[in-house]
Design brief:
The chain is mainly α. The protein is about 50% helix and about 5% strand. It has a 3-stranded antiparallel β-sheet with strand order 1-3-2. The longest helix has 17 residues. It binds a DNA duplex through α2, α3, α6, α8 and α9. Belongs to the Nth/MutY family.
DNA sequence: CACACGTGGAT
DNA sequence: TATCCAAGTGT
């Protein structure tokens, strides 16, 4: 459809026609209509609980690894109250190798809170979502938008990268989310709720599928013609180096090894079994203490350990 | 605000 | 092989 001459005053049907980023909405949403992945948490039957589970699992973990675990969780704990009634250690065990197992503990805690405070229904109110353990700025907006169709700026790493390039004209967004990014995201939000929710999902999908961190696919991008970064000749990121993660030899690696033993065990494990995962006793003890302090491991009398029962 | 927090696939 | 990266949160 051809764009008619811009009317002197915006009509209700095109309420955001003059708003910032209005020229991005239609191309990105239309592209999403044709290219969105058929992910289980996007199906209507997933419900708000399914959306919430997926958002926890997708925090720093790729879709491909989340898919099978997501299906297992939803089948085993179809409602928040089902998870709340089970032991937190079972959530940690079922988390498998998704990484960052504290997310499993927090998701269990969120299920308990939902059962106690919200009658077992995932709240739709942003502030109530934000008050749940494991839910921060991004996840609260994501659940409210994806599950309940509300109008929120959903600023994840994909959206931040798309905005950095298409609007700001730089290759990468800042290390941490800035006030300027929040302001921009709000300014770019379509006025009406359903379109805003669609835009949130579409802009995120664009970052996930085409406008990726490396090897971006501008030839298929629906907004390549307007992309500030591409128009500027795609200059390389200059600023401070993007924070890299080290892993080998860290406490995180040791914690991972300890927890792997406990996930596989269905009876309490003796200290000696845990000692075998790491040779350095000081670091090993520190890692185990950390897991206990985090509530991921429950110490028992007699030098035995297990995943938390309560 | 910088850092801790898992894991595995891709380059 | 060494890095980078993947729908962040909590402190």
């Amino acid at each position: 459809m051809t764009a008619p001459t811009k009317p002197p005053h915006s009509s209700p049907a095109r309420a955001d026609a003059d708003a910032p980023g209005a020229d991005l909405h239609s191309p990105v949403i239309d592209w999403f209509d044709d290219n969105a992945r058929d992910l289980p948490w996007r199906r209507p039957e997933a419900g708000a609980w399914g959306v919430m589970i997926s958002e926890f699992m997708l925090q720093q973990t790729p879709v491909s690894r989340v898919l099978p675990v997501y299906e297992q969780w939803l089948a085993r704990w179809p409602r928040p109250a089902d998870l709340a009634a089970d032991a937190p250690g079972e959530a940690v065990r079922a988390w498998g190798r998704l990484g960052y197992p504290r997310r499993a503990l927090r998701l269990h805690g969120a299920a308990v809170a939902i059962t106690e405070r919200h009658g077992g229904d995932v709240p739709s109110d942003h502030a109530q979502l934000l008050a749940l353990p494991g839910i921060g700025e991004y996840t609260a907006a994501a659940v409210a938008s994806f599950a309940y169709g509300q109008r929120h700026a959903v600023l994840d790493t994909n959206v931040r990268r798309v905005f950095a390039r298409a609007v700001t004209g730089v290759q990468y967004p800042p290390n941490a989310t800035t006030a300027a990014e929040r302001k921009l995201a709000r300014a770019l939000l379509p006025d009406d709720e359903p379109t805003a929710a669609r835009w949130a999902a579409a802009s995120m999908e664009l970052g996930a599928l085409l406008c990726t961190a490396k090897n971006e696919t501008c030839v298929r991008c629906p907004i390549a013609a307007q992309c500030a970064w591409r128009l500027a000749g795609k200059p390389e990121h200059d600023g401070p180096p993007r924070r890299g993660q080290t892993y080998a030899g860290t406490d995180r690696q040791v914690r991972g090894k300890l927890l792997a033993v406990l996930r596989a065990a269905h009876v309490p494990v003796p200290q000696s079994a845990l000692d075998r995962v790491w040779h350095e006793p000081v670091q090993r003890a520190r890692a185990l203490d950390g897991l206990v302090a985090d509530g991921l491991v429950e110490p028992l009398p007699g030098g035995l350990y297990r995943l938390p029962l309560t």
